[in-house]
Amino acid sequence: PWREWERLPVGRGGLIGLILEHDEPQLLTGLDVPHDPVLGEMLAPMRACMATPHYDDGEALNWAIQFSMDPARWSPEDVEKSLLNGNLLGTATRNLVSRQQAQELNAKLESQLDEVARVQRSLLPDKTPDISGLKIATSYLTSQKAGGDYYDFVHFGEGRWGIMIADVPGPGPAAATVMAMLHAFLHGLPRDRMTPGGSVAEINARLYRSLHEGMFVTAMFMHFDSVSGDLDFVLCGHPPARVRRADGRVEALQG
What distances in angstroms separate CA 133 from CA 137, 228, 229, one per listed residue? Predict the structure, then answer.
């Protein structure tokens, strides 16, 4: 039962114990073992034994041990052939086991990444807000299951909105984790009349204290006043956003 090692009986000593003391192929003839402390009476009629180790990194990890009532059953050439075939089979078996283990680990990793992706998407707005003076549509397609792409809206009250577009470089759970931190810091901003620069400075200070060296976030953060129509923004190493005018023109936000 290869998959249930705990069910395998454990022996000590006897002929097999003597064989396992030497990590090399063995051909034993003229056997006369009327009683073995492990195998009992089974070896009594046996007169020959061929034992070939299956090596892993130079050590005999498994063995093929055969017995025969014929003392001339095997020759040294048979031992060589058994050693070669057994180790070829052992290599193939190890490769299959390693492949199965890799598949199981990949399945677990895929499941974890799916969960990370679900959590990440839950942090994005479930619907676009109705902001007077703007028409908003969103599309979110990640190249991998989880990543650091982020957009969000924060209502500051009295027709004032904060709009963020950001990116945490690098794919995977690490970027998604930083994106979650950014979400928490953004929604933790005070709701008074902070400027875009003040908001970004507050978020930046918190991220700086939390991120490891070499990690960073690029972002564009905007304050939109739906009463006055004014849009103020700060670029933080991020490409400028585009705005589509009422007449269809698309322009980069500069300034």
Answer: 14, 10, 7
Q: What pTM, to 2 d.p., does this model score? A: 0.56
Question: Per-residue pLDDT for 74 more than 90?
Answer: yes
Model pLDDT for residues 170-218, shown as the tens digit of each residue: 767 778 888 888 888 888 888 765 788 888 998 999 989 888 878 889 9
* Residues sharing a CB contact under 8 Å with residue 78, sequence separation 6 or more, in sequence order: 50
Q: Environment class of residue 103 by beta-carbon count within 10 Å: exposed (0-12), middle (13-18) or buried (19+)?
A: exposed
pLDDT, tens digit, 9 for 90 and up, residues 206-232: 989 888 878 889 999 999 999 998 989
C-alpha 70: how far from chain center: 55
Rounded Cα distance between 41 and 64, Å, is: 20
Which residue from 65, 70, 26, 74 is spatially nearest to 47, judged by alpha carbons?
70
